[in-house]
Amino acid sequence: MDDAMLPPxxxxxxxxxxxxxGLLKGGGAMIVGFALGAPTGxxxxxARGAKAGPPDHQAVDTWLAIHADNTxxxxxxxxxxxxxxxxxxxxxxxxxxDMGMHQVSTIRLDxxxxxxxxATSSSSSIHRGAPxxxxxxxxxxxxxxxxxxxxxxxxxxxxxxxxxxxxxRGENGFRKVTYGQLLGDKPFNVKYDGTAPVKAPSDYRLVxxxxxxxxxxxxxxxxxxxxxxxxxxxxxxxxxxLPRGQRGFxxxxxxxxxxxxxxxxxxxxxxxxxxxxxxxxxxxEWDAVKAAAALKVVWRQGEPLGDHNSVHARLRKDKTVxxxxxxxxxxxxxMQKAAFVRGSSYQCPYQSHAPFAPNCxxxxxxxxxxxxxxxxxxxxxxxxxxxxxxxxxxxKVRIQFFEGSGTFGRSCYEDATQAAxxxxxxTGKPVRVQFMRWDELGWDNxxxxxxxxxxxxxxxxxxxxxxxxxxxxxxxxxxxxxxxxARTKAGVERANGSGSITVxxxxxxxxxxxxxxxxxxxxxxxxxYLRGAALxxxxxxxxxxxxxxxxxxxxxxxxxxxxxxxxxxIGDERWLGVLDAAVKAxxxxxxxxxxxxxxxxVVRGRGVALGTHHVSYGAxxxxxxxxxxxxxxxxxxxxxAMDCGLTVNPALVENQMVGQMIQSVSRVLKEEVxxxxxxxxxxxxxxxxVLRFAEHPEVTPVVxxxxxxxxxxxxxxxxxxxxxxxxxxxxxxxxxxxxxxxMTPERVLKALEGQQRT
Amino acid sequence: MARYVxxxxxxxxxxxxxxxxxxxxxxxxxxxxxxxxxxxxxxGQCGACTVIIDGEAVRSCLTPISSAKGKITTIEGLxxxxxxxxxxxxxxxxxxxQCGYCTNGMVMTTAAFLDKSKSPSAxxxxxxxxxxxxxxxxHDRVVKAALRAASAK
Lengths: 758, 153
Ligand code: FES
Ligand code: FES
Description:
- The complex is a heterodimer.
- By secondary structure, chain A is an alpha+beta fold.
- Chain A folds into three domains: 219 residues, Aldehyde oxidase/xanthine dehydrogenase, molybdopterin binding domain (Aldehyde Oxidoreductase, domain 4, 2-Layer Sandwich), CATH 3.30.365; 151 residues, Aldehyde oxidase/xanthine dehydrogenase, molybdopterin binding domain (Aldehyde Oxidoreductase, domain 4); 352 residues, Aldehyde oxidase/xanthine dehydrogenase, molybdopterin binding domain (Aldehyde Oxidoreductase, domain 4, 2-Layer Sandwich), CATH 3.30.365.
- Helix content of chain A is 29%, strand content 21%.
- Chain A is globular.
- The N and C termini of chain A lie far apart (65 Å).
- The N terminus of chain A is likely disordered.
- Chain B is of the alpha+beta class.
- In chain B, strand 3 and strand 4 form a beta hairpin.
- In chain B, helix 3 crosses helix 6 and helix 4 packs parallel to helix 6.
- The site of one FE2/S2 (inorganic) cluster has 12 residues of chain B, from loops.
């Protein structure tokens, strides 16, 4: 049910329950509706939401409620971002409780209700979100069994549970009691400390299996409640007013003058200002859209920004803070002794999160707290930032998470949240703010550009004997454009060190046993570059693009098949596992890369590569076609393998893999933030190109299941491998190396032209 | 104030707007509370706002209310979670959504396309969806879902 249709008090109380109680079977398809919770649940829920969180992390009641109808509500601190992790977390809870998937539901994050588990990022939902939930659920089960023992007059040890029904083992259900009868909406009042026994992986009934995602039927019916859907009575529509395309970090958006008369002709439109923040509100959304476009503002200009083609040279010349990330043996010395040395410099672009839904938030100042519906990935951090911007105590702000679209890292969701908060506070009315496409693409916190210099040496037998990687990039911002403007403060950059982006040692050669290896990160200050932040698999596409092409070049130098070459050099069975799984799925035929280059206008190639983000393992094989006349590359087939330890729901991981591999194709072939001296120029889907239907590959995902290993991330770990496999396939097809991505037709033609001349 | 009567999902709906140029998308979402069609770009580049007017898939972000004549079908009028349209059922079968923000455009474009094209190939489907953007990489599954819906008809 779309809870925008509910009376406002219900819509605002956060009681929209993602429920499986509406489970129906129909036409062979499992149809699952999102309905409101049962009345008892809703009441208990409202009581829960009465005061500002976070609730006690160690209390079982923070994580779970058992209802009289023998269902359970699970409260987690990780949000649904389109990756289906709610389904995965429900599987974990239902597994430990011995309940069925149809008996458990969850609610959206809310700073008055749900626990603080920090951001939903780094693919951490199952990895970091599940252990606390699992421990709380195990403790809950223990408590329920103790109570059942008293109720049935037996020792808890002689009880068994199925679908929330506790019965005495061996009695065929003669004596039994349900969880609902035992607890029925009353609190547990117990804490968990991690000592309650959890199930052995070999006993799992739900984890490792594939229940269908709970969110899809409503999404397909246009009924799923996204943050963009909410409307409340008396609400105004707001838009931010920003220059078209950001300039350098540090300049921000500073108005020199604002001509309010320029929107006098638009009915009810008003300018809202706070510090340097400029926005407009109007009763009708279209009037707000028009007013934002019509408002005449003179903006302060900053230093010229340079452009997207010269940024790599600038990074390499800049005064950087250098950190040696890995350093073993004597790479320089061994490089001299190697039979072959290969290396090159690489240029990688700024890329945008470009969420398909421009960010949106609705702030309502009319109650005790300022209540904001927001697509933030971290409700508690968002609450803190809003409180800072407004100068309010945190407890006066309540953030309720609602999905926008996939965001892939820090897009403008905090900006939208803060803009709504400011405009609602200034007008005293609820205000809904949505970014326009050009606001989102022009004022994103982009994945930073990267320049790399890689060199590696191999001996005549095919062992990698030396490896050096130098990478240059600037870091990430911790503040947002709107908070900088409203507080008239310069943006804050993450200091070097933990949390700033440095070269990832795992993505740069760590998968091979190399006795002499050095990786150095050169961090440039962000001033007068673009705003940077984490973008899905942060910089791993860049690292893999540079590193895995170098590895491939070594294989060619010793005339080995790239798979055999990697097998020989891999130092870890889990890397070997994903490599083997990917090449098996692809039915890889050994060859020396580029040795069978086809003639004709359209040539084909295959490539392989490894890569990851943090802890999981990824491998990919790509099959591409290159049109030598037009320069167009089409990725025909991708085979990816991922080992993320215990995979809770292989279907979800496969879906994630397909999504990330296709996004990787888009990023390595098409996506680039462009800018000139006056600011960012890629402001819509024609200037910021993404992969379209004609160019999408067929994708085969393979999950390497390891039930005895802890679950690790699955949302971004096969992207680097995919990007590099495509680059390697390009060499296989053409005999030419691409040192820069995106591999656009212009760049491809230029590279091929160079080949013809030599 | 200008008043218009629209025919949406089989019902006549009267709406009042300030500006005859106001796109149909905003009227559907704000006045009629039909939030299936979505704002993605407002530029006709992504398909998020697709509705069907007299059998044609149309970008409601570029359709001024003053020219929104004919029978308008939104995704809410196509089917429900309980009684999905053949295209919606196929999308569920194929789990052809991640975040779902593009799903309206995919489903509506596919539905209008399949009404005209009875036994399309995969490449026909790709052509039909060429102007729709998905940021989450559901392309493969969307094509499979469209083919499944075509064969179910
Ligand atoms: S919103 Fe209409 S095409 Fe993008
Ligand atoms: S599913 Fe997210 S944009 Fe397509």
